[in-house]
């Protein structure tokens, strides 16, 4: 299965998350170069589920602009941000979510009581979700242009720039997995079901995180095919060590690098050949944790881009990922059905928020 075979371990740097230089993938390189990038990428996705990609193709000034757009957005007043409110309930995931509205968890059961228990610890973050303008199932929720001039045009452009890189990564993964058709995964990824997310974790007293009365983002896996994440230099993102259950390793910020992780859909497609690893956001590193007499944590900004299959895609085991030793583990599921199950407990209606307050 796959082209990587064997026990060959990718280079271990920055803790244990491999770095892959993607410049060797881009045009004017030989097939052998592309193959070696594809192999390194796939090895990382199969052993850790996370990989830093450098020279991914998104220029640093564009990334700086994206972080500036996020900072401008989150520094608006609450009332201004609420001009683009996240719609009530879990069906549409767009617009602005104030701190506490979304509760990330790994719980996928249907028991509302368990969901409410998990909610006792609220997530201290705010976010803004953006999708394709042509996705009528998930219509965007924009601020009035006068509130944040240029924001809509810039983030829409950024969304499609990220998608160009995503398609190249999907091509490389198809090659690494050993799919005969390098375009196979692209057929399910028109780009219209991706999600660009701007995230802000405001400064909070470290004591509150330490006593676990609030969380930045608890451990979870992503529901996407894969996620491309850009983070500032604050730190705090941690990834479960697949070799040591219960241990998390820091995904230390690497300037300009994109952190790519396998999502649940790709794990199912590949029959667990590639792994969708739990990750969380917690305190920044000890040396850099506290500011001022109230021991405030630094603010953190991050920009995940969730690359997601089109809603009606049937995610079923790739023929290259099953044989007599690797029987099929998952029933086929559409992206839409899978996301619905996961979304239910992440968002509740404003009526339920008020009732629990
Ligand atoms: O903020 C981060 O670095 C991680 C965000 C994340 O894991 C998510 O939004 O799913
Ligand atoms: Fe995540």
Task: Write a compact overview of the structure shown.
GO terms for molecular function: metal ion binding; oxidoreductase activity. Pfam families: 2OG-FeII_Oxy, DIOX_N. By secondary structure, this protein is of the alpha+beta class.
Write up what this structure looks like.
With 357 residues, this protein is of the alpha+beta class. The protein has one domain: Jelly Rolls (Sandwich), CATH 2.60.120.330. It has nine helices and 16 strands. It has helices spanning 31-47, 60-74, 78-81, 112-118, 151-177, 206-210, 264-269, 335-343, 350-356; strands spanning 19-21, 50-54, 95-97, 122-123, 126-130, 195-201, 214-215, 217-220, 226-231, 237-240, 248-250, 258-262, 279-281, 300-307, 314-315, 333-334. The strands form four sheets. The protein has an eight-stranded mixed sheet with strand order 1-2-12-9-14-6-5-3. A four-stranded antiparallel sheet has the order 8-13-10-11, with no helix packed on it. A hairpin with a 7-residue loop joins strand 10 (237-240) and strand 11 (248-250). Helix 1 packs across helix 5 (151-177). The radius of gyration is 20 Å and the shape is globular. Fe (ii) ion binds at residues 220, 222, 279. GO terms for molecular function: metal ion binding; oxidoreductase activity.
